[in-house]
User: Fold this.
Amino acid sequence: MGRETKMKINIENKVKNKKIEELKGILLNLILKTLKKHNQKFDEINIIFVNDNEIRKINKKYLSKNSTTDVISFSYADISGMKFADIFISTDTATKNASIYEINFETEIIILTLHGILHAIGFDDLSKNQRIKMSKETLKILKGE
Assistant:
């Protein structure tokens, strides 16, 4: 018989942003909806909100890129087969993106969280077609499709 474990979702607000605290319930619901829609299960998901300095360090250490970015997503399994995802989101870059795209900060945080989850379940955005597919999937999730 397979093991039944309860998934743990942690949202860590390292930047102490009040708006992140207010969004936690919405983010949890969207994460669960996305996983269910794509028939994906994780033992633990960590969404970690950081500043540009911190995400630059992560980007350099793990991806050999000495630059800031909006979201970095890692998914992996341990030797027992437990499945994990760590998703880092820069609130500094989210603020800049929100201004560029003329949307509010909260909407950008929701989009980046979904983007990170989609990466964790196997979506990629290296090509233009992949980016379009990912954007369309994000919109479908937001619309409840």
Observations:
- The beta strands are 8-13, 44-50, 71-77, 83-90.
- The helical segments are 18-37, 52-63, 91-101, 105-120, 128-143.
- Residues 73 and 119 are 6 Å apart (CA to CA).
- The chain is about 50% helix and 20% strand.
